[in-house]
Amino acid sequence: MTMREMLFFLMWMLLTFTTAQAYELQDCWKQFPPERQISNCSKIIDQSPPRDVLADALFHRGSAYAAKGMVTNAIEDYTAAIRLKPEDKHALAARATAHVSAQDFDKAIADYSAALAIDGKFATAYVGRGYAFLVKKELERAIDDFTTALGISPSYVPALNNRGLAFMKMGKLERAITDFNQAIERNQLYGLAFNNRGYAYEKLGEREKAIDDFRSALSIDPTLTGALAGLKRLSAAGNIAAQSSHRIAEGRRIAEKNCAWCHAIGPKGDSPNKQAPRFRDIQARHPILALREPITRAIVTPHDAMPKLGLTQPQIDSMIAYINSLQSAP
């Protein structure tokens, strides 16, 4: 081989490696599918790349683990990324969200606070911390955080909805309804706000308004079984009750057939697979937020020993409705 041929060969190898590495980086940065993202991020991590690249790869692999419900793995990767880039507010907020999923709200609050120390205008972190305070029933602190977030981003619908919930839990029902009204004005397809306003109207004794809101919530998102329970309490369920009850029963059948060998699917008992979250814990991780996005992602994506189920969207809705049925009203 001549010198010229050798140089050409080395240049070709370099270009080939760079292209492959760029391809892996691109797939590591992509959100879906998580398995491919984890695999490609792991290849980058195993190559001991420069510090910033390693931190980013760990962050994105952590996000892929979180998407699969593998919270412990996600927290480990986020922690490693934060060690490399302590000023990364997004990694801190992502780890905080994972701590919420693990029901460790104190650690979540600490991470959100650290992110806010870096960027005091980080509205997402205020909403996340406010949510953790809300679940801990530290309602004044939750309201303060949601209000601060709305000062930064006035159209932040989840902040309005969650602040309304905090006011409702304080018994300030009219004030809660004001927030739910604003949330609905900004997003008329936000089923949770209709659902929660229905609870507030029901507590105020405004039966017809509560019925209208519960029906609107179910028409937007048939998996909001709290709205169904509200209609039943108000003796106004009618045909919608039969439809929703059928959906919940179908969801339980699907879960018994496909998930019970690994997960605890009922209100009691432990999962046969200790690594698999109990369904009631999956619901508890999102006591306020809608389950559709995380549950859909978990169902359509194979995880651990579980194969892809190949469920239709109505079947996925039935599964979500069943999991939602394990919850209690706000």
Describe the fold and architecture:
This protein has 330 residues and is mostly helical. Among the domains are: 52 residues, no CATH class; 88 residues, Cytochrome Bc1 Complex, Chain D, domain 2. It contains 17 helices and no strands. Helix 3 packs antiparallel against helix 4 and helix 12 packs antiparallel against helix 13.
Largest sheet: none
The percentage of residues in β strands lies in under 5%
State the name of the first-level CATH class of the domain at 243-330.
Mainly Alpha
Uncertain regions: pLDDT < 50 for 5+ in a row? 12-17
Shape: globular
Q: Which topology of the domain at 243-330 does CATH recognise?
A: Cytochrome Bc1 Complex, Chain D, domain 2
Distance between the termini: 76 Å
User: What is the second-level CATH architecture of the domain at 243-330?
Assistant: Orthogonal Bundle
Q: Helical proportion?
A: over 70%
Written as H for each helix and E for each strand, in order along the chain, the element string is HHHHHHHHHHHHHHHHH
Radius of gyration: 23 Å
Count of strand segments: 0
The CATH homologous superfamily of the domain at 243-330 is termed Cytochrome c-like domain
Count of DSSP H/I helices: 17
